[in-house]
Write a structure and sequence with these properties.
By secondary structure, the chain is an alpha/beta fold. It is built from ten helices and seven strands.
Length: about 260
Amino acid sequence: MTDWNPAQYLAFADERTRPARDLLAHVPLIAARRVYDLGCGPGNSTAVLVARFPQAHVTGIDNSPAMLEAARLACPGADFAFGDLSIWLPQDPPDLLFSNATFQWVPRHIEVLEHLAATLHEGGVLAVQMPDNLDEPSHRLMRQVAEDGLWAWKLREAAVARDLLPPVATYYDRLQPLFRRLDIWHVIYNHPLEGVEGIVAWLGSTGLRPFLAPLDEREREAFLAQYARRLAEAYPLQRDGKVLLRFPRLFMVGIR
Ligand SMILES: C[S@@+](CC[C@H](N)C(=O)[O-])C[C@H]1O[C@@H](n2cnc3c(N)ncnc32)[C@H](O)[C@@H]1O
């Protein structure tokens, strides 16, 4: 797949950073020395961590060179390093392992989170937010368009780039033994966007990437046109001409 596009991703910086702020609001640490932002992207979530813990050594980890380059420019108060989260572990025991909108891309992520939790100090915190939106029309329709077109053979892998999140009960049973306290909850955001084009623009830099990457330019245009037509049926215009993108997200905070 092609690399992430930080500028396109940050077109919705405020909406994308809001769950990071909401997650951090539930982290009960007064101070921290060692903080990691796992899947730091262009540094938007890292900047939130630096502002909350100005004395801490904050490191952003990501496996996208483009995202890391953007993060280094945007957030000089932290340092950044390349790492694949499916195998990455911190060298020194952290006070906070924080991750906003990343582990949904990491296969077998519960197992990965188990290993990460074991590295925390006593009293250390694992805080994770993941989109839980694969059953929303925005994502069901991209899978349908993929299956219905002549491009179906090219897009066989696209729908499995991200697995459906396991049930909350599974996270709880697997992770609870590692924590003194584990809190898991959902929040549903409703983002007013500029018509279905806004939904396409939002997902173009995230969920649509595995579907667009295998297509050539003409196929991409045709795919997006079909996708937009189907979106228009699922997301009616509000009185102000906008559409509401319903966006459920799963939050977890574990205290070691
Ligand atoms: C949706 S962005 C989240 C960025 C930022 N944390 C935020 O709050 O908006 C997901 C990031 O996870 C990174 N990522 C995905 N899979 C990864 C992996 N296996 N290892 C490291 N980073 C990964 C991507 O490169 C991307 O920058």
